[in-house]
Write a structure and sequence with these properties.
With 1036 residues, the chain is α+β, with helices and mostly antiparallel strands. Among the domains are: 204 residues; 119 residues, Gamma-adaptin ear (GAE) domain (Immunoglobulin-like, Sandwich), CATH 2.60.40; 114 residues, 2-Layer Sandwich (TATA-Binding Protein). The protein is 48% helix and 11% strand. The protein is built from 41 helices and 17 strands. The protein has a 6-stranded antiparallel sheet, with helices on one face. One of its GO terms (biological process) is clathrin-dependent endocytosis. Adaptins are components of the adaptor complexes which link clathrin to receptors in coated vesicles. Clathrin-associated protein complexes are believed to interact with the cytoplasmic tails of membrane proteins, leading to their selection and concentration. Pfam families: Adaptin_N, Alpha_adaptin_C, Alpha_adaptinC2. It comes from Phallusia mammillata.
Length: 1036
């Protein structure tokens, strides 16, 4: 920045500021400001033209008045005029005024943008910097649209100096945050990434901030930054570093740049290259080693910088989660901070250890600090640190220490801050449910929770304990006894009354044999709480009373007197009045048998995700995710209460596995039989429907698409028929621009399959010389269209690339040292179009090249394949040629066609045989339907011949989002809200062929604990069910 000369000092501004400071009252200040505003207004409106110095001085006064809180409605044009000045100080004040006072909707914005454009192209770096600062300060959509393409040029320009590049990077970051979807700068990615090697501290720091935001939005475009970031970090932190020697902050080399680089690396997975990975691990080990060294300075700045790098390195270690040594060392380092005198360090250590507790490599190391964390929970003065201690106890809890941790949390709840009590209640409820060694402990824990923090026990908590007690025969008697004892306390929380009323109403008969808990004693105990409760609890107790009439007929008169009391029948609360009246009538006019039927025990609840866990997810998503990760970590030894408690003769239908998932995260239970035809359990588990009720989903294609060849018609053989055949495909596949062979003019070359855009998932050919290896598709010669032969090819070698095409339609199908084969397909109804791309990876020519497709016995007459464009017989070195096929699915088939390639290279013959990725699922079209239609069709497709079911071990981590993506790519429409277990996948679709359409329904049930799946497919054609099941069996 240029130095300000003595002549630029504004004495009038200094005097004005001094006058304002000397004002004794608000009125005096307003009077002085109004006087100055009048003076400035007269100067601006006067006949005398003001020089640049005067404009600058008055604009500065206006800016100062605005900052004092007064509105300014003039002077904007004078500020804009200052932008045209060649004097730095005048231009600077003009930009400052515009950045602070001018709205992005101002009428002057176009004029301002024009001045900014002039300054951006200025040869003076200080003027360019002022313009970039103004763009970033305003940061409007209009600024982004005007300069979004100009600023990147300054960033990568070889002529721009370091200060301009730094400002350009930060300005670009501001514009990107304004319009992230339209400003990805993919074309500049490689040049922006290489700014990480810049030697200027300001440039590389600004560049890292920019790349971090861009990589979060477009990770694939900027994945090349990983190796450069690791290299730059290594040069900074290693003991032999030679980078940025001129910037050491209190004996810590470039700490803030190191922090930004470590944060950038967390946007990507751990590098696959051993050299880069080893270098990164070395950097992290060096950072951990330096933390063990004695401090080089006692000043707080040194420790702050050192710890900033350390904590970001630990976050990266947690993100990598594959280096056990680093994870344990990080945990030990954090353990030293747990007793540090600095509160902030203790807070950060607890927060980081919460993340480490979720790793299988460091979980045991975290548990060693349990006593320290419990002590922090009891002794910390800062409530935020105590809250982090609660989070860490929750994260480190497992089956081995659950009882101790829950007991400590219950003990602390008595004195806990009100701000964290509700969250602690949820966590105690979840942990006691998940890691229950037996149901007596769980019931005791929840009831103690209600006693200690009843005001903070939400409905989800006491609802959940009732659900579990109802579902477990072996817990019902103990629960009834325990709640009865708790209700006898002089001070009893209302939530305890709710739980006690519900459980005694259902299972009070289990303890009625004891004279101390006889029916009348139970009733009197509950009724003694009645008048102290809210209307909602009273309503629940009235339901308990009518249940007592069914359980204990001997106290029926006593209860009827209560129900018929005027206080109930004439209650101001409509709900209480209606219940009292209806229950009174029900007990009077119905027989004992009818009453017993109406008031029978509640049936077991279907297991689903715990509502407590769902509430914690909303309140604190990180804690709930930690528990779900822990579920995966302990999947081989789940918290099973059935390992400790023997069930009665008829256990409730919770799961089919040997373990009980109290949180409902496992497989769904089989519900009791019901006559409700809309119940999902009945639909999925019911008996097959009678044969006459099976729905016929076979439809004529001619009725649905009149332009499509009718069922049973022969494949095209003549030129005219071929044209009609291809026209039908063109009408159904608008993405394929198929020219008409009968026209007199041939259309220009087109990118039929967009292969020229380098969109292959596996990348394009990389051999040299081949700068245009992936080229556009030329004109298609329909005169070469011919029918493919049907000789069966023997000894077909399955390609390792084949299976991935079950879920996508483009990519590399095969590759060796000589040849790369790419494929891109599109399908619509029964028609398909396949583009094959053959790339010569050698510098020499491939001769006698031929490609043919042969059909297996299974496909004869079921799949029609016609060659639209043949590949040439010679492929030059580094060149690529195309081969196009049209297909029609006539009927159901199960095998893939075989692609055979023959060619000569340097006189030696070569051949490749592989499966073409065209399977029956490619003609699958997803179908959306509501629950009613789905249930009906599922039952109608219930015959054994129509269903295929397989149970198999999971090959990959069970993840709902990736499973849904696979099913969608397979062609199934995933239906939400159908299955009561949200982890199950339900889908529907129709396979469309020329002869018929076949409806298909799918259900995929994961079992996290056993790491297994159960796949069920029902279709009106049993062969299709079996085929689809076989295809999907090994894909999850």
């Amino acid at each position: 920045m240029p130095a300000v000369s003595r002549g630029d000092a504004m004495r009038g501004l200094a005097v004005f500021i001094s006058d304002i400071r000397n004002c004794k009252s608000k009125e005096a200040e307003s009077k002085r400001i109004n006087k100055e505003l009048a003076n400035i207004r007269s100067k601006f409106k006067g006949d005398k033209t003001l020089d640049g110095y005067s404009k600058k001085k008055y604009v500065c006064k206006l800016l100062f008045i605005f900052l004092l809180g007064h509105d300014i409605d003039f002077g904007h044009m004078e500020a804009v005029n200052l932008l045209s000045s060649n004097k730095y100080t005048e231009k600077q004040i003009g930009y400052l005024f515009i950045s602070v006072l001018v709205s992005s909707n101002s009428d002057l914005m176009k004029l301002i943008i024009q001045n900014i454009k002039n300054d951006i192209s200025s040869p003076k770096p200080v003027h360019v910097n002022l313009a970039l600062h103004c763009i970033a300060n305003i940061g409007s959509v209009e600024m982004a649209e005007a300069f979004g393409s100009e600023v990147p040029k300054l960033l990568v320009s070889a002529q721009a100096n370091e200060s301009v590049k730094q400002s350009a990077a930060l300005c670009l970051l501001r514009l990107f945050r304004t319009m992230p979807d339209s400003m990805t700068y993919a074309e500049w990615a490689s040049r922006v990434i290489h700014l990480l090697n810049d030697q200027h501290m300001g440039v590389v720091t600004a560049a890292v901030s920019l790349i971090h935001s861009l990589s979060q939005h477009s990770p694939n475009d900027y994945k090349g930054c990983v190796s450069l970031a690791v290299s730059r970090l290594s040069r900074i932190v290693t003991s032999t570093y030679t980078d940025l020697l001129d910037y050491t902050y209190y004996f810590v080399p470039a700490p803030w740049l190191s922090v930004k680089l470590l944060r950038l690396l967390q946007c990507y997975p751990v590098p696959d290259e051993p050299a880069i990975r080893g270098r990164l691990v070395e950097c992290l080990e060096t950072i951990l080693n330096k933390c063990q060294e004695p401090p080089k300075s006692k000043k707080v700045q040194h420790s702050n910088a050192k710890n900033a790098v350390l904590f970001e390195a630990i976050n990266l270690i947690i993100h990598i989660d594959s280096e056990p040594n680093l994870l344990v060392r990080a945990c030990n380092q954090l353990g030293q901070f747990l007793q540090h005198r600095e509160t902030n360090l203790r807070y950060l250590a607890l927060e980081s250890m919460c993340l480490l507790a979720g790793s299988e490599f460091s979980a045991d190391a975290v548990k060693k600090h349990r006593e320290t964390v419990i002590n922090a929970l009891k002794t910390e003065r800062d409530v935020s640190v105590r809250q982090r201690a609660v989070d860490l106890l929750y994260a480190m809890c497992d089956k081995t220490n659950s009882e101790e941790i829950v007991a400590e949390m219950l003990d602390y709840l008595k004195i806990a801050d009100y701000a964290i009590r509700e969250e602690m209640v949820l966590k105690v409820a979840i942990l006691s449910e998940k890691y229950a060694s037996d149901y007596t402990w769980y019931v005791d824990t929840i009831l103690q929770l209600i006693r200690v923090a009843g005001d903070y026990v939400s409905e989800e908590v006491w609802h959940r304990v009732i659900q579990i007690v109802i579902n477990r025969d072996d817990a019902q008697g103990y629960a009834a006894k325990t709640v009865f004892e708790n209700l006898q306390a002089p001070a009893c929380h209302e939530n305890m009354v709710k739980v006690g009323g519900y459980i005694l109403g259902e299972f009070g008969n289990l303890i009625a044999g004891d004279s101390r808990s006889s029916p009348l004693v139970q009733f009197n105990l509950l009724h003694s709480k009645f008048h102290l409760c809210s209307p909602a609890t009273r309503a629940l107790l009235l339901s308990t009373y009518i249940k007592f009439i069914n359980l204990f007929p001997e106290i029926k008169p006593t209860i009827q007197n209560v129900l018929r009391n005027n206080n109930q029948l004439r209650n101001a609360d409509v709900e209480l009045q209606q219940r009292a009246l209806e229950y009174s009538q029900l007990s009077s006019i119905t027989s004992q048998d009818v009453l017993a039927t109406v008031l029978e025990e509640m049936p077991p609840f279907p297991e689903r995700e715990s509502s407590i866990l769902a509430k914690l997810k909303k309140k604190k998503p990180a804690s709930a995710q930690a528990l779900e990760k822990d579920e995966e970590k302990h999947k081989k030894s789940p918290a099973s209460v059935e390992n400790h408690v023997e069930t009665k003769e008829t256990p409730p239908p919770i799961t089919n596995s040997n373990s009980v998932d109290l949180l409902g995260l496992g497989t769904p239970a089989a519900a009791p039989e019901t006559n409700n035809t809309n119940a999902l359990w009945d639909v999925f588990g019911g008996s097959p429907a009678p044969e006459e009720q099976v729905i016929d989903v076979n439809m004529s294609k001619t009725e649905e698409n009149p332009g499509v060849p009718a069922a049973g018609s022969e494949p095209p053989t003549t030129a005219a028929n071929e044209t009609q055949y291809l026209t039908n495909i063109e009408s159904l596949l608008p993405g394929f621009d198929i020219p008409n062979q009968l026209s007199s003019e041939q259309p220009p070359a087109v990118e039929l399959l967009n292969i020229g855009s380098n969109t292959f998932d596996e990348g394009t050919l990389v051999t040299q010389p081949a700068p245009e290896l992936i080229s556009g598709i030329g004109d298609i010669d329909f005169a070469q269209t011919s029918q493919v032969g049907s000789d069966v090819c023997a000894d077909v070698s399955d390609s390792d690339w084949f299976e991935k095409f079950l879920f996508k339609n483009s990519g590399v199908l095969f590759e060796n040292d000589l040849l790369q084969i790419g494929v891109k397909c599109e399908f619509k109804d029964q028609y398909g179009r396949v583009g094959l791309f053959f790339g010569n990876k050698t510098p020499t020519q491939l001769n006698h090249f031929s490609a043919s497709v042969t059909l297996t016995d299974d496909q004869q007459g079921k799949l029609v394949v016609a060659t639209q464009k043949e590949a040439p017989s010679q492929i030059d070195g580094g060149a690529q040629v195309q081969h196009f096929l049209n297909m029609e699915c006539v009927s159901l088939f199960s095998d893939a066609p075989v692609l055979r390639i023959r060619y000569n290279h340097q006189g030696a013959p070569h051949s490749v045989s592989l499966k073409l990725p065209v399977l029956i699922n490619k003609f699958f079209e997803g179908t959306d339907m509501d629950a009613t239609n789905f249930f009906g069709r599922w039952k109608q497709l219930g015959q054994p011949a129509q269903e295929c079911q397989k149970i198999f071990q999971a090959k990959f981590p069970i993840d709902a989002s990736s499973t849904k993506l696979k099913l969608t790519g397979f062609g199934i429409a995933c239906l939400s809200g159908i299955d009561p277990n949200p982890e199950n996948m339900v889908g529907a679709g129709i396979v469309k062929t020329k002869d018929l359409q076949v409806g298909c329904l799918l259900r995929l049930e994961p079992n996290q604990a056993a790491r297994m799946y159960r796949l069920t497919i029902r279709a009106s054609n049993g062969v299709l069910s079996q085929t689809l099941c076989d295809l999907l069996e090994d894909q999850f």
